[in-house]
Amino acid sequence: MAIFKLMSLKQGNATRTSAAELTLRASIYPLCLVTVLFFLWGFSYGLLDTLNKHFQNTLHITRARSSGLQAAYFGAYPLASLGHANWILRNYGFKAVFIWGLCLYGVGALIAWPCILHRSFGGFCAAIFVIGNGLGSLETAANPYITICGPPKYSELRINFSQAFNGIGTVVAPVLGSYVFFKYTGDSPQALQNVQWVYLAIAVFVFLLAIVFYFSPIPEITDADMAFQADATHAGTDIQPFWKQYRLFHATFAQFCYTGAQVAIASYFINYVIDTRPGTSSSLAAQFLAGAQGGFAMGRFLGVLLMRFIRPRYVFLFYMTFCIIFIAPAITLRGNTGMAMLYVTLFFESIIFPTIVALGMRGLGKYSKRGSGFIVGGVCGGAVVPPILGTVADKYKNTAPAMAVPLAFFIAAWSYSLAVNFVPAYREPVDKNGEATIGLNNVANDEEGAIPPQSEKTGIERSEDTRREVHETSKF
């Protein structure tokens, strides 16, 4: 029992630790472990895109109704990111949220078993809602953890590299679907039976991973650590009340619009190919989707490389602009040409979600955990836009004209990429954080206001005279 007592998940937020100044080497293990989570929800998201068409075939439902999967999945995100997961994150810490999210994911996968057995689409949507709560919890913790765990200078590189494994998961899932889900179609008993085994395997894996997280000694990052990072880099905006962090709320709006557009395109990619490319089977279209998601993953790895030499905000603007340029022709083009436009669109979508997270959290300091809940909550756009696209596609009996819906939401999200590049109040915190040397040297520079990691604090408050000076209010 002694080992369980040592593995307490309770974590104070007012205590300074050495985690704020982790070097690249010290951050490798926790980052690798958390990166596994990115693969998991990429795989789950990819399965959802494939199941969208599979349920249309096997349960004989409309495009609009099949979007209930996306509505249940992404509709759960705000409940997690602004509710239970964010409360656990602020009161217990990152590790507790990782374990909580994995357990919810596993429970949802187990609930899916009887729902699929009885061919209950509503029941399966309920299971997906539980899974969405689990994945929403994981994203609420994993995205800020990746951006903060290590030198601030490389936060965009870290989160895009980890998110690239999310892209790999979205490639694996449609390939699996093309050979497993679409092997049997129509009313065959085998048509849904294979889906059951996939979700049982997911449940077993995530429960085992939760045990690994429980026993892993990953560094816990506190509000005090994040306040120190913001103060030391002179990029902090947390001197203002939380409700005046307008950059954060603009990032949340952009995340809502972008994620809604991304999910809508991927959810109806198979429908688009079948509608515009005569003679294409569901299985072949799922393989085309896997190829498009492969381009998505490649786009992320290329984005990481570009960000090593170019400011991330420039790369962000470039990618966002090209999403708009290439989705527009897909509305009127058909056949291989139209599908190629979607391929290129997915390639340029690749870095946008994680970059919005990283840029939106720059300078939030002690508000980082709370702010991450809002940005991840913006993912609920994935519950709103696909039903709109599905309704338009049903009206026109074709998915191509409905691609005007994600185009409109891309344009709305584009406003944030413009602001972060051309509005000084947005640009300056981003650039200052990118020039930080914390974690690049073993000893931080005195002029940056570094506090030795050995001198842990149990309380922090901002001084009005010195703007954001960390004070010690009590000791252990």
Automatic annotation (TrEMBL):
It is found in: Cell inner membrane. The chain crosses the membrane at residues 28-48, 68-89, 96-114, 120-138, 159-182, 197-216, 253-274, 286-307, 314-334, 340-361, 373-392, 404-423. Signal peptide: none annotated. Pfam families: MFS_1. GO terms for molecular function: transmembrane transporter activity. Residues 458-476 have a biased composition (Basic and acidic residues). InterPro entries: MFS, MFS_trans_sf, MFS_TsgA-like. Keywords: Cell membrane, Membrane, Transmembrane, Transmembrane helix. SUPFAM superfamilies: MFS general substrate transporter (SSF103473). Residues 443-476 are annotated as: Disordered. GO terms for cellular component: plasma membrane. It is a multi-pass membrane protein. It comes from the Eukaryota. This is Uncharacterized protein. It comes from Meristemomyces frigidus. The lineage of its organism: Eukaryota, Fungi, Dikarya, Ascomycota, Pezizomycotina.
